[in-house]
Amino acid sequence: MSKNIILVMIVLILGLGTFLQFANMVYVKSFLLSMMLMVFAIGTYYIVLINTLYYKIDKGYLTIGSFFRFNDVIISLKEIEYYMERITLINQSGLAGLLSKRFSVGKGFIEGIGKVNMYITSSRKAIYFTTSFANYAISPESPNSFIAVMKKENIQEKSVFHDILENDLIKSEDTIRQYFLFDALLIAVVVAIPVFLYYRSYMPLYISVTLVKPNVLSFIPSKVFIENIIRYGILNFVFLILFMIISKVYSKIDRIYYYRVMIIPVLVTFFFMLYVINIILPIFS
Length: 285
Known about the structure:
Layout: H1 2-22, H2 26-52, E1 54-58, E2 61-65, E3 73-76, E4 80-86, H3 95-100, E5 104-110, E6 114-120, E7 126-131, E8 135-138, H4 143-152, E9 156-157, H5 166-199, E10 206-210, E11 217-221, H6 222-250, H7 263-284
Parallel strand pairs: 4-9, 6-8
Antiparallel strand pairs: 1-2, 2-3, 4-7, 5-6, 7-8, 10-11
C-alpha cells in the first residue's frame, strides 16, 4: 500500500523539481517548492495513517483510530443500523482506489452503497456499515470477530443496493461550478486591480520586480508589468479551464467527489495573487 503512495510522491516531486530548475521567477519557484512540500506532507500523512490505522470495539463503541488521534472516529454500536460484508474493487472511490484497487482512506463513492467514509486497507475483507448519518467502510484483520460482535449486539446483516442519488450528482455539479466561478472571479480581481491602478496613473513609470534571487531587484516599465499580469491572468484562466476538463475525466474515477481536483487551480491563483500583492504593496508603503 505504502509503496504506491511513495511511487506517486517520487513521480510528482521529480516532475515539480524539473519545472523548478527552469523557473526564472521567485514566485514561480516559491509555488513549485510549496507544491513539492505539500506533496511530501500529504503523502507522509497518508503513509502514517494507513500503517497505523486500527479498529477497536470497547464498552459499546467502535473506534476507528490511527497515530493521528485528532482524526479518530468514535461510533456507538447502537447507532449502527445494519452491516454487510463485501469483496469489491474500489476503483471508483478516488485516486487511491484507482492506483491500488485495494485500499482507500477518506470520503469516497462505492457503487450500490453510495457515499462512504472509507477506512479500508484491504478491500478483500471490507465490511460496510450504515448509521443514521453516514456509511462507513473498514477492513478489520479478523472480519469474523467483528461480525460476531455485530450479531451479539443484534445488528442485522443486509445486502442493500442503493442507486446513486440525483441530489448527490447535482450537489457535485454545483460545487465544481462554485469552484470554477470563485477561481475565475479571483483571477479577474487579481488582474483588474493593477490594471486599474495603472490606467489611473497610480503607478510609477518603473516597477521593481523580484527575479531569480529574492535579494536582487530588477526594474521594468509599468506597461510591461501590466502586460505580464494580463498574460499571467490569461494563463491562469486557461489552466482553470484545463482542470475543469480534467475534473470531468476524473469523475469516471470518483463520481461524487471529483470536484476536489479544482483545489489545484485555486492554489495556483492564490500564489499568483501573492505575487501581485508582493509587487504592488511596496508602491504605496
